[in-house]
Request: fold
Amino acid sequence: MPLPIPAPPDPKAMVVATEDWVEYRTGFPTLVRRFLFRSVPPTGWFHTLGSSLLTVFILQATTGMLLAMSYDPSPTGAYESIRYITDTQTLGWLIRGMHKWGASVMVILLFLHIGRTFFYGAYKYPREMTWLTGSIIFLSVMGMGLTGYLLVWDQRAYWASVVAVNINGTAPVLGPFISKFLLAGPVFGAQTISRFYALHMLMIPGLIGAMIFVHMWLVVKLGVTPWPGRPASVEDER
Amino acid sequence: MADSPAGSHAHAHTAPGAMSSAVTRSQFLSLSTVGLGAMIGAVIGVPATAYLLAPVFDEVQFEEAVLGPVSSFPADPNGQFKPKAATFVEDKSLPETSATLAWVYNTGKSNSDWLASDAQFIVFSNRCMHLGCPVAASLTGFACPCHGGQYDKRGVRTAGPPIRPLDRFQWKIEDDNLVVTQRWSVDYVDGKLTYYPVKMPGQPVNVPGPEVVQEHVPDILYPNVTYEHGAVPKPQ
Reply:
């Protein structure tokens, strides 16, 4: 009696089996499905600003990590290392350009996103915490702009940072302490650039990442804000 | 738990025979976890915070710096206001970042006492008192490129956002060299130029705050010794 020929594997069944395997062990497929396939009210292009920001954040994080591999946060080496990245390294000009322009794009998108949230009334009950976590992200991104600007370490970067630190210094009571905290001392020094570097690539991005997680958790939990005003069905009855 | 009185949920986990006020095993473990966590947090957090904030309380000591031979700062033969730029390093441990520039104005007089009304030099700091950009000298005084601050020949603001006159350096002549010995923040009080411990740009001289310089301060200068270089600036 001939041996039975095994049936060829069914690709679809294999996918299902794999997903079941992952689902049973991690639960991620359910997580992803609940995140991506949830009900939302009628939305428009203005609702894409948040995910655009997430995309730009990922861009900034990725290009930032690449730049950090060649950057030297010291008064003697910073400018030269940036020149090396821009002029010598393969595609260094592109990675640095993406990081530089991405920074501006992020700030612009952030303001548009804040404006959308404000004019839709999306900061109101029950989404107050989404607004507040967004505010922390906003201030953190401003901090990224401040600390990143110095790292180029050319004349413009240096004097712009001197001005920015001195603006902080004019705040009442705490001002002088804030400026010395930023400078890591009473004057601009070698400690300043490494402090800005650590703030720029470790502390603030970590804070932003954590806050993005909370922010998105709240968006999913509370749902997307619909257009302000009555639902269309109510308008129809009038 | 069957013998627990109905409604006494707070003590539902109390072991039979234990006193009702005693801490249960799970409460004890919860408290221990929180307490131990707080201790670990403090062990990590306190040194980290101190490390991070320590620079806030640092103070800079001004070190004497030679600007150059006196002969390299001649008075202008036509009596015009042409201060000479002199670079020096303020903090010798940080030469890359603390290079700075003083504007040395030879008044054409000869008194080597820096506080005399006929002092030979006035040594201005080039740090704009708006937000710290470097000012450039011109025939009429000083001008800042960043936000348009203007100063007259005494370093007194004439236009723009600076809030007080340019800092000045105390100086002496040693072995025929012009030496700066101290930086001072200055302001006019009752028409007299008054010297104060250094404040950062944008900060008034007379508000409380961390004082950057306290060393090398002869008593006679601090806080209210005054002298005149010129007339009272008009109120802006």
User: Anything to note?
Assistant: The interface with chain B takes residues 75-76, 159, 162-163, 165-167, 169-170, 173, 175-177, 179-181, 183-192 of chain A (CB under 8 Å). Chain A has one domain: 45-224. The radius of gyration of chain A is 24 Å.
